[in-house]
Write a structure and sequence with these properties.
By secondary structure, this protein is an alpha+beta fold. It is built from 4 helices and 10 strands. The protein binds adenosine-5'-diphosphate.
Length: about 240
């Protein structure tokens, strides 16, 4: 982020490197129930991102001193595969993945009815197989589908999107080049029914006016992304119901 470069990210017609306009999303596809051994699962393809989420629980929290007598604890673990980026990524947790795991755990805790499961733990494993910018948001968006697939009660989905600033212009859903060479990156996630924001981070600089444009672009995109989440779950139900057994 913020690396000065001569690369031109927006052409004279206002179009981006991949041909999108400022408010366009990359293609998004979500499939629920992709792993048989997990309690719930989902796969998301968002632009060039490919991410699998596996959910386990609610089960008794371990070690016991971690238990909360009033609610379930939600443990998201975000991990990037070594082969998920151009240069091999050193395997294992680093500061970035620990931070992302923490903010995703907090965002999911706001949606899950954690108070129904005292002393329990819900594990959400987010495995990034291919990274193309916006992985925390894509992983979070897929996580709430995987949690619903596990039958864990939620107040609402968690649905996210990023916006940012490239070549001085506010645009939705940054691509890898835009993330690398742009001036700001703003990932946001909300509960779509209430509009309550459960994750907001910012890298780079935006004026107040640019920030407002960016957040309203995101809040406009959230119902579109939520529809893809809902469709992933309803087609899963159809597949299960269509077995004829
Ligand atoms: P997000 O993926 O949520 O946008 P960042 O803004 O930190 O998170 O990262 C942007 C993109 O930079 C990632 O999606 C990925 O494509 C790339 N990236 C992140 N970490 C690494 C890394 N350790 N090595 C190579 N590329 C990385």
């Amino acid at each position: 982020m913020g690396t000065q470069s001569d690369i031109k990210l927006i052409d004279e017609n206002g179009l981006r490197l991949d041909g999108r306009s400022a408010g366009d999303l990359r293609p998004i596809r979500i499939e629920a129930g992709v792993l048989e051994r997990a309690d719930g699962s989902a796969m998301i393809e968002w632009g060039g991102n490919k991410i699998i989420v596996a959910v386990y629980g609610p089960r008794e929290a371990y070690p016991k001193h971690n238990q909360d007598i009033n609610r379930a604890i939600v443990k998201a673990r975000y991990n990037m595969a070594a082969f998920s980026v151009d240069e091999r990524k050193r395997p294992g947790p680093d500061r970035r993945s620990i931070e992302i795991s923490k903010v995703l755990s907090e965002a999911l805790s706001a949606a899950i009815m954690v108070e129904q499961f005292p002393r329990a733990q819900i594990d959400v494993f987010i495995e990034v197989l291919q990274a193309d910018a916006g992985t925390r948001i894509a992983g979070l968006t897929a996580s709430s589908v995987a949690i619903a697939d596990a039958g864990i009660p939620m107040r609402d989905f968690v649905t996210g999107c990023t916006a940012g600033k490239v070549d001085g212009k506010v645009v939705l859903d940054l691509s890898k080049e835009e993330d690398n060479f742009g001036q700001a990156d703003l990932p946001v996630a909300a509960l779509p029914k209430s509009g309550k924001i459960v994750l907001m981070q910012m890298d780079g600089d935006l004026s107040v006016e640019e920030f407002e444009t960016a957040t309203s672009m995101i809040m406009n995109a959230i119902p579109r992304i939520n529809e893809i989440q809902r469709n992933a779950l309803s087609s899963r139900v159809k597949v299960e119901g269509g077995g004829g057994e």
